[in-house]
């Protein structure tokens, strides 16, 4: 963990050159580790997606509920999306209409049909505490080595983080082999740096859901996010 106090900012306007497009979906089940299968299915429908440097796909997250259901941890287990579950792509504004072609398509995600319904558009978040469920671990073996790698990457982008917290390691399957990742929360960024990280991400494999930052509204509630 790395922690340093800061002063909040106010009155900022979120740019809309990079946006999230959010699709309603119909899907009965997905494997917990569906990142590669989902991204491959999207790339087969959107030929430009993998080569678009500012395009990324959010993995589909089914949160634990308050009625006793817990999100499974085993990669081979199944998630059961609800009617409220969404598929989200982060793309440049000029690609929004291109992404609309997904509406009505049924994707094959590791043998599970996923039908894409309506689409809406959402700007990035002004919140300055953000997290990523998956950051690719390049060389680090320990938590501190990972944070040092992250620090170096952020400084290369001109970002000086004040508070960072990483979670446990998780592996994601590829067509051949796998990659090792960790979750990461970065708190109390400047508004400008938060937007930059949401736009550009951090590390490799953004096309399959790694390095994508989401808003985190409460630093104290980190259990499920960072697990």
Tags for this entry?
11 strands; 5 helices; 2 domains; Alpha-Beta Plaits; 227 residues; alpha+beta
In percent, how helical is the residue content? 10-25%
Please give the count of helices.
5
Number of domains: 2
Tell me the β content.
25-35%
Rg result: 17 Å
Uncertain residue ranges: 65-70, 220-224
Total strand segments: 11
Label the overall shape.
Answer: globular
Strand order of the largest sheet: 3-5-1-7-6
CATH class designation of the largest domain? Alpha Beta
Secondary-structure content class: alpha+beta
Average pLDDT: 88
Descriptive report:
The chain has 227 residues and is α+β, with helices and mostly antiparallel strands. The protein has two domains: 18-123, Alpha-Beta Plaits (2-Layer Sandwich); 130-226, Crispr-associated protein, domain 2 (Alpha-Beta Plaits, 2-Layer Sandwich). Helix content is 19%, strand content 30%. It has helices spanning 35-45, 96-99, 143-156, 191-200, 223-226; strands at 18-26, 30-31, 56-57, 78-79, 86-92, 106-109, 112-123, 130-136, 163-173, 178-187, 214-215. A five-stranded antiparallel β-sheet has the order 3-5-1-7-6, covered by helices on one side. Mean pLDDT is 88; it is low at 65-70 and 220-224.
């Amino acid at each position: 963990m790395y922690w340093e106090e800061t002063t909040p900012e106010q009155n900022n306007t979120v740019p809309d050159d990079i946006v999230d497009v959010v699709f309603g979906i119909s899907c009965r089940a997905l494997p917990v580790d569906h990142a590669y299968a989902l991204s491959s299915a999207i790339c087969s429908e959107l030929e430009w997606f993998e080569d678009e440097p500012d395009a990324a796909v959010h993995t589909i997250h089914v949160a634990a509920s308050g009625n006793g259901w817990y999100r499974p941890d085993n990669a081979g287990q199944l998630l059961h999306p609800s009617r409220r579950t969404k598929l989200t792509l982060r793309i440049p504004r000029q690609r929004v209409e291109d992404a609309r072609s997904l509406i009505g398509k049924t994707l094959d995600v590791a043998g599970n049909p996923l039908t894409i319904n309506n689409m809406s558009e959402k700007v990035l978040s002004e919140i300055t505490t953000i997290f990523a469920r998956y950051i690719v671990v390049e060389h680090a073996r320990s938590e501190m080595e990972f944070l040092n790698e992250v620090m170096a990457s952020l400084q290369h982008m001109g970002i000086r983080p004040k508070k960072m917290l990483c979670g446990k390691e998780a592996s994601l399957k590829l067509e051949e082999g796998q990659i090792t990742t960790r979750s990461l929360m970065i708190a109390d960024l400047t508004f400008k740096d938060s937007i930059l990280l949401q736009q550009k991400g951090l590390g490799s494999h953004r096309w399959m859901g790694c390095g994508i930052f989401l808003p985190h509204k409460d630093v104290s509630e980190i259990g499920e996010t960072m697990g």
